[in-house]
Amino acid sequence: MKSHFDFEHIYLHRDPVDFRKAINGLSMIVTDELEQSCFQNALFIFCNKHRDRLKILYWDQTGFCLWHKRLEEDKFKWPKKHSQNCIEFTTEQLDWLLRGLDVSKLIPHSNKIYDDF
């Protein structure tokens, strides 16, 4: 998979999707539900109902790529109660999600530089 650090945006689809969907079905969700262009420089993350599988869709300038991860004994900590259906993630939040951490409970320190130091 192309390094996620090369992507301008990372979008997570909050609601579970039918994992029989492949590239065509997921790209329809991107356009219809997330109201995004699937041809932009972005990752689109989807989860199944049981939260033990992820699919990540992206366009690599020559075609669509679909990455699939299946957990054997655990579940992804998915932000189910978020108010929006399309959640923009940082690369750090994506790493947390893939490592099994609860993204909603981890809030990093601000990168704000204080002028009075």
Reconstruct the topology from this structure:
Elements lengths: L8 E5 L9 H10 L9 E6 L5 E7 L4 E7 L15 E4 L1 H9 L18
Parallel strand pairs: 1-2
Antiparallel strand pairs: 1-5, 2-3, 3-4
| Strands in their spatial order, largest beta sheet | 4-3-2-1-5
Rg, alpha carbons:
15 Å
| Number of H- or I-type helical stretches | 2
Oligomer: single chain
Q: What is the domain tally?
A: 1
Shape call: globular
Percent of residues in helical segments? 10-25%
Low-confidence stretches: none
Strand content bin: 15-25%
Coarse structural class: alpha+beta
Distance between the termini: 42 Å
Taken in chain order, the helices and strands follow as EHEEEEH
Can you offer a commentary on this structure?
The protein has 117 residues and is an alpha+beta fold. The protein has a five-stranded mixed sheet with strand order 4-3-2-1-5. A hairpin with a 4-residue loop joins strand 3 and strand 4. It contains two helices and five strands, in the order E-H-E-E-E-E-H. The protein starts with 8 loop residues before the first strand and ends in an 18-residue tail after the last helix. The chain has one domain.
